[in-house]
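Extended Data, panel c. Modelled sequence:
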Amino acid sequence: MKTINVRELRAAIPTLREELAREQELLLVSHGEPVARILPVPRKRQVPSLAEHRARMKMLPVSIETLVREERDRR
């Protein structure tokens, strides 16, 4: 964790993204006292497409309709 004061933060704003990627966390201090922690926002997870998901699924040898009817007949 890198400690940075307000003046340094203002000067570092253009390169703040790179600084956070390198340090992972910045501690903002004012007059030697910690004021805030600056953390990078986690990236959103990429959601796979529904078509890709369906393509990976194995097809059942029997239709769902048949399975449901058999289950209902057993009751």
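The chain is about 45% helix and 20% strand. This feature is highlighted in the accompanying rendering.
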